[in-house]
């Protein structure tokens, strides 16, 4: 089985791997495709067996390999005004339209399309593939795969996470943590506010506190960091609560996230929030209703990518792309998870984040060509004795 880059992108985009659904059909296709070239794959399933990561090695089982990492899941298309079928690749005006073309199936497709060339090259050092699930919902899939790679792979030289960066080097990004806070109040008639505890109004008070932390962060920016915005940001995205206007609400829940600068610990903000709940808000609630409560649960935590100038991954990608600039991004990726596990890691992939998650998502054909050119340089490098 041989595919051009365009044919492989078309194939991967054709699998509707929205995070809420299974990605196994895509994983099975990749496994069979690699097996057709004599390459063994290792599938790491989730607990339910409905999704899977895949990692595989092309070339000898020796140290000094390079990992090409990409996630297989995509964000939903529900309610978006697409002009074409989002899961059918459409080429128009030098652009390839389809869900996942930019974020981020094209990078993996380019690498997979080059597998026959990798095999024919007689690699001296391996090229590894690492395909994950559930990146779009908090990078939840990759850790189990990374743990197996640490245990079973000879130490790679570098990891390239192919998130859309216009094929420019990105050596740092923010971390992201997601939380859900559930406020349990006490119902009563709204004419008797002294007898009830409003979960909705309490939640509003907690959100005001979160907004205060966010404003505090904004008041001490680090413009030299290159991030936009140049500070840790905190945002409440969803809130649900209450039954009727004349009932003091029993429950209110809200979902919030925190995108921390790589050198900041998100736990410090959560600790402040929970101290405020415990020391100031809950005692007042329980004076009226002893059963009142505030519970905050972690939804996910993804570490940021810390800049490591001169690292193996940094030097490798600069050599492959000729990029001498240093880029940082505010979006999160699995790169921080690889780095946390001890891998030298960088972000570099085709496409622009400006097109990610949009209706009519697309990637420029020129970006695909540039990615193919860069990966062919990698094959040459991994085939040399140097």
Structure description:
The structure is a single chain. This protein is of the alpha/beta class. It is 34% helix and 22% strand. It is built from 10 helices and 15 strands. The protein has helices spanning 5-13, 24-35, 101-113, 115-121, 142-152, 199-218, 266-288, 312-321, 335-340, 365-383; strands at residues 41-45, 52-58, 66-71, 90-92, 95-97, 127-132, 158-161, 170-173, 175-184, 233-241, 251-260, 293-302, 327-329, 345-347, 362-364. A 6-stranded mixed sheet has the order 1-2-6-3-7-14. It has a 4-stranded antiparallel sheet with strand order 10-11-9-12, with helices on one face. Strands 4-5-15 form a 3-stranded antiparallel sheet. Strand 1 (41-45) and strand 2 form a beta hairpin. The longest helix has 23 residues, at 266-288. The radius of gyration is 23 Å and the shape is elongated. The two termini are 31 Å apart. 45% of the residues are buried. The model has no long low-confidence stretch (mean pLDDT 97).
Task: Summarize this structure as a short list of keywords or feature phrases.
386 residues, alpha/beta, 34% helix, four-stranded antiparallel sheet
Rg over alpha carbons = 23 Å
- Based on secondary structure, the structural category is alpha/beta
The whole-number mean of residue pLDDT values reads: 97
Largest sheet: 6 strands, mixed
Q: Per DSSP, what share of the residues sits in E-state strands of 2 or more residues? A: 15-25%
| Strand order, sheet with most strands | 1-2-6-3-7-14
- The coarse silhouette is elongated
- How many distinct beta strands? 15
Quaternary state reads single chain
Please work out how many helical segments DSSP would assign.
10
User: Secondary-structure element sequence?
Assistant: HHEEEEEHHEHEEEHEEHEHEHEEH
Terminal residue distance = 31 Å
Low-confidence stretches: none
Helical content stands at 25-40%
């Amino acid at each position: 089985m041989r595919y051009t880059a365009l044919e492989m992108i078309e194939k991967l985009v054709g699998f509707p791997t929205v995070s809420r659904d299974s990605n196994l059909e895509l994983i099975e296709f990749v496994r069979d495709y690699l097996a057709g070239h004599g390459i063994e794959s290792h599938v790491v399933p989730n607990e339910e067996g409905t999704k899977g990561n895949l990692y595989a090695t092309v070339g000898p089982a020796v140290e000094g390999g390079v990992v090409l990492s990409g996630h297989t899941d995509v964000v939903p298309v529900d309610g978006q005004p697409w002009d074409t079928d989002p899961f059918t690749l459409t080429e128009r005006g030098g652009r390839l339209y389809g869900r996942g073309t930019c974020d981020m199936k094209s990078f993996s497709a380019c690498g997979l399309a080059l597998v026959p060339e990798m095999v024919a090259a007689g690699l001296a050092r391996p090229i590894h593939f690492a395909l994950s699930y559930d990146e779009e919902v908090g990078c939840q899939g990759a850790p189990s795969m990374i743990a197996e790679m640490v245990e079973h792979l000879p130490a790679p030289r570098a990891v390239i996470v192919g998130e859309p960066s216009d094929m420019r080097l990105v050596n740092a990004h923010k971390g992201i943590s997601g939380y859900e806070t559930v406020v349990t109040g006490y119902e009563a008639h709204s004419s008797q506010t002294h007898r009830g505890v409003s979960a909705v109004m309490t939640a509003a008070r907690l959100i005001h506190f979160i907004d205060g932390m966010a404003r505090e962060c904004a008041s001490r920016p680090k413009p030299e960091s290159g991030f936009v915005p140049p500070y840790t940001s905190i945002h409440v995205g969803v809130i649900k609560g209450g039954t009727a206007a004349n009932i003091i609400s029993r429950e209110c829940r809200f979902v919030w996230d925190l995108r921390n600068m790589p050198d900041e610990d998100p736990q410090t903000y959560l600790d402040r929030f929970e101290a405020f709940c415990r020391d100031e808000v809950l005692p007042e609630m329980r004076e009226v209703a002893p059963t009142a409560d505030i519970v905050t649960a972690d939804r996910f935590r993804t570490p940021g990518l810390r800049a490591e100038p001169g690292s193996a991954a940094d030097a490798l990608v600069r050599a492959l792309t000729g990029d001498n600039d240093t880029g940082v991004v505010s979006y999160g990726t699995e790169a921080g998870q690889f780095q946390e596990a001890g891998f030298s890691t960088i972000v570099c992939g085709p496409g622009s984040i400006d097109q990610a998650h949009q209706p009519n998502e697309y990637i420029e054909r020129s970006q695909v060509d540039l990615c193919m050119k860069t990966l062919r340089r990698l094959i040459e490098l991994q085939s040399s004795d140097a």
